[in-house]
Amino acid sequence: VVRSSLHPVFSKVFTVDYYFEEVQRLRFEVYDTHGPSGFSCQEDDFLGGMECTLGQPAQKWLLQVVMRVSVDVLHFLCCTESSHLARTGPSFLLRYDDLCLSWATAGPVRWWTCRGGHTGMIVAQKKVTRPLLLKFGRNAGKSSITVIAEDISGNNGYVELSFRARKLDDKDLFSKSDPFLELYRVNDDQGLQLVYRTEVVKNNLNPVWEAFKVSLSSLCSCEETRPLKCLVWDYDSRGKHDFIGEFSTTFEEMQKAFEEGQAQWDCVNPKYKQKRRSYKNSGVVVLADLKFHRVYSFLDYIMGGCQIHFTVAIDFTASNGDPRNSCSLHYINPYQPNEYLKALVSVGEICQDYDSDKRFSALGFGARIPPKYEVSHDFAINFNPEDDECEGIQGVVEAYQNCLPRVQLYGPTNVAPIISKVARVAAAEESTGEASQYYILLILTDGVVTDMADTREAIVRASRLPMSIIIVGVGNADFTDMQVLDGDDGVLRSPRGEPVLRDIVQFVPFRELKNASPAALAKCVLAEVPKQVVEYYSHRGLPPRGLGVPAGEASPGCTP
């Protein structure tokens, strides 16, 4: 919220995933607020809105979207030959063929807009200004909104900063100044981009502002020598803030000065400096703390030698049906793999690329097994309790097919024992203190688990370990109760109320992907794993192997 301003510059940054293959529509709305807690989206408070689309990088990008509202802006937009979509309101649509023809015959294509007119929205633009519109497409007076987008796909960390100041100029007559600080990045066109605005410290000439976090991309576009500018103001409730002073620096200079214990700058008012020979400063701003948290990607850990260990657990309960019956989910059709095999092969073939020895643990649960035919919820489907691993995915498939005629399908559907077994192996890896082994447990089941309380407890314990759990529901059962394990609708908790440290479970009903390609199935099932791997090692403060934490850097973490 920007108080008492007709020309607000919003410091809030939105990070958006960009997908080339999708048309991603965005809508920005501006509202008037009433008081400290008066935010609402009521029609009477609506100042205007604007719709646009993301656009046109040739790869999946992350975009930062920053808003600036201004009044009565004339602007033009241009696009390159590669732009694949351009549109404004419902009456304007530019076909790609027409665009290419215009480019070939007349060069860059331009649109101009006057106040109150429609603006051509070209998806390749980094900065777009459009009028704010009220209901039914009416102009909101002369108001306009500017949206700035930039690629942050190269972002590899964030910075934690804390500032304080001393002996600031007193701008108030009957009290002391109410200072706040603004940090700006200087762009290539020498324009200033607001990075962060601190809170206001009331009635204090020696303020200590709260620490804040900002991505390296937002701070300096990942260029440590890019100029930065800090401005200090005395807050005014009417929006007419009094300027106290400013200073310029770079992130590189900030790091060096902080390491040397000299991270302070004169806060200078240029007007005072020009008028008074004896003028020195309007106070001093001190960098009280600086921590650089480098953020590593999933690929960083894999290239650092982290191995993905894959374990599959197959449901052999009686609800699957007699394997000799063609209606059974376990029926082996020589011409068509069953759902268990489809899910197993699709996911396993991806995972085996990240495992150097290509050996996978294959377990079963819910069956009576030889020789005594007692019910087991944790048995090796190759019937070798000393070595439950199989050679590659084909080895798992063969072990599964050989296992079916030797067991009696029974029940109940208990999965906590298998989760606990894999967790014990992962716990041994945790003690090494290296990012070397990560475990994925794929559970294939045809129904809701019976031991839900024990399963929740096991998942909460496993959430502290280098481990992810993927549950694929096969068949047409009602899997509604399984969604609680996924954690997408709320934080999963143990029966004792303890929450998971991180979300490690992904549940996927196979019937929703039954007709999808193996690649699409694997993509959906494994979508969360890279993030979970990074979250675990970031929480533990473990960099990829061979990449220790350099001096001056904090342990790796996740971008805030």
TrEMBL record:
Keyword field: Calcium, Metal-binding, Repeat
UniProt keyword annotation of Repeat present: yes
Gene3D superfamilies: C2 domain (2.60.40.150), von Willebrand factor, type A domain (3.40.50.410)
GO CC annotation terms, alphabetical: plasma membrane
GO molecular function: calcium-dependent phospholipid binding; metal ion binding
Protein family according to the UniProt entry: Belongs to the copine family.
Protein name in UniProt: Copine 7
Gene name, Swiss-Prot/TrEMBL: CPNE7
